[in-house]
Amino acid sequence: MIRKPFAAPVVMLLLCAASVVASAALGKMALSPLEAIRGLLGIGAEDHEMVIRNLRLPRILVALLAGASLAASERCFKE
User: Fold this and answer.
1) Do 40 and 24 touch, CB atoms closer than 8 A?
2) Are 63 and 23 in contact (CB under 8 A)?
3) Is the dihedral of CA 41, 58, 61, 35 positive or negative?
4) What are the tens digits of pLDDT across the range 5-57?
5) Which regions form coiled coils (predicted)?
6) How far apart are the first and last CA of the chain?
7) Which domain holds residue 55?
8) N or C: which end of the chain has fewer CB within 10 A?
């Protein structure tokens, strides 16, 4: 049995998670990474949660979906 490399997908998922946290933290209202994680989980300050969930999270999700769509279309064209 041939084993596929395990490290590449794990590293990609960690980079994706780090970019989500960075995108949630950066903006006009700068937050620390810990505050951003708390806001994403719903256990942070009320104003941080509002900014993250109503303004930043939709932008992050659209960016992730656009990237996944581009990756899937490239995969289809390569075959």
Assistant:
1) yes
2) yes
3) negative
4) 778 888 889 999 999 999 999 989 989 999 999 999 989 899 999 999 999 99
5) none
6) 24
7) 31-63
8) N
In a domain, 57, yes or no: yes
Nearest to 55 by CA among 64, 66, 47: 47
Tokens of 47: 């104003």
18 phi and psi angles, rounded to 5 deg: -65, -40
What is this structure's pTM?
0.80
Provide the token pair at 59: 């932008």
68: tokens are 């996944």
The answer to whether position 40 is within a domain reads yes
Cα-Cα-Cα-Cα torsion 60, 66, 70, 73, nearest 10 degrees, comes to: 130
Residue 49 belongs to a domain? yes
Residue 31 has a CB neighbour count (10 Å cut-off) of 21
Instruction: Give the model's confidence band at 2: pLDDT under 50 very low, under 70 low, under 90 confident, else very high.
Output: low
